[in-house]
Amino acid sequence: MKSGADFNAIKTKSADLKRKMGEILKKLDEKEKEFARIKKEQAEKELAEAAEKAKVEQEAKAAAAEKEAKKQAEEAAKAAAEKAKAEGVKQFVFMSSAIVYGESAPIGKQKMITKDTPVSPANSYGDSKVQAENGILPLNDESFKVVVLRPPMIYGPNSKGNFPRLAKLAVKTPLFPAYHNKRSMLFIDNLSEFVKQAILRQLSGT
After folding, report:
1. pLDDT, tens digit, for every residue of 108-162?
2. Which of 147, 163, 154 is CA-nearest to residue 191?
3. pLDDT attached to residue 7
4. How deeply is 133 buried, as exposed, middle or buried, from its count of CB atoms within 10 A (0-12, 13-18, 19+)?
5. Cα-atom radius of gyration of the chain, to the nearest Å?
6. Per-residue pLDDT for 191 more than 90?
7. Which of 37, 62, 181, 204 lies 20 to 30 A from 44 at CA?
8. Residue 17, pLDDT above cutoff 70
């Protein structure tokens, strides 16, 4: 028969074994959590890289599409002018935009545009207008007048953008802030009259 001391020794060894098993299981659990964390981070990294790649590709496609649209707009304006000249048309009126002078001045600042203001487009739309102008202006001569108009924001019946919303607000509200507008606007009928006069007077240039 085993003595009490033997039973105590077995009991102690059993407790030690149980403790070691617990430590091993704890380490395994920590390793599993660490592996899961690394796996999650890797998945998130791969997802972020995929998203960034997709973004870059999308931006590249958008840039290419914008470049192609800009090129087509420039070529279309020049082709139309060349066709008009070849068919014996006496005058060609190209509707450009004041955007060729760059963006509007920030709030609190003033930006005066005169006939001597150089073009300085701030975006691809403005640049496409400048390039279109450069493509058709050389066609101007005594028998073919090229007129380039650079109107600011146009407003009138059924116009788009913020102006009609502002007009509706002015009608509905009894109060309206006293704000001294510094942005150039042109009524559609005034633009139409200017185009008419440019044709009647056989104007050319910008």
Report:
1. 677 778 788 888 888 888 888 999 999 999 999 999 999 999 998 888 888 777 7
2. 154
3. 66
4. buried
5. 37
6. yes
7. 62
8. yes
Picking from 143, 130, 49, the residue whose alpha carbon sits closest to that of residue 88 is 143
**pTM of the predicted model over 0.70:** no
- The closest of 199, 72, 76 to 146, measured between CA atoms, is 199
Task: Return d(Cα 99, Cα 50) in angstroms, integer.
Answer: 37
- Reduce the secondary structure of the chain to three states and give it as a string: CCCHHHHHHHHHHHHHHHHHHHHHHHHHHHHHHHHHHHHHHHHHHHHHHHHHHHHHHHHHHHHHHHHHHHHHHHHHHHHHHHHHHHCCCCEEEEECCHHHHCCCCCCCCCCCCCCCCCCCCCCHHHHHHHHHHHHHHHHCECCEEEEEECCCEEECCCCCCHHHHHHHHHHHCCCCCCCCCCCCEEEHHHHHHHHHHHHHCCCCEC
Report CA 146 to chain centroid distance, whole Å: 32
Angle at 118 between CA 100 and CA 144, to 5 degrees: 75
CB 144, CB 89: distance < 8 Å: yes
- Percent of the chain at pLDDT above 90? 24
Unique residue bearing structure tokens 């380039």: 148
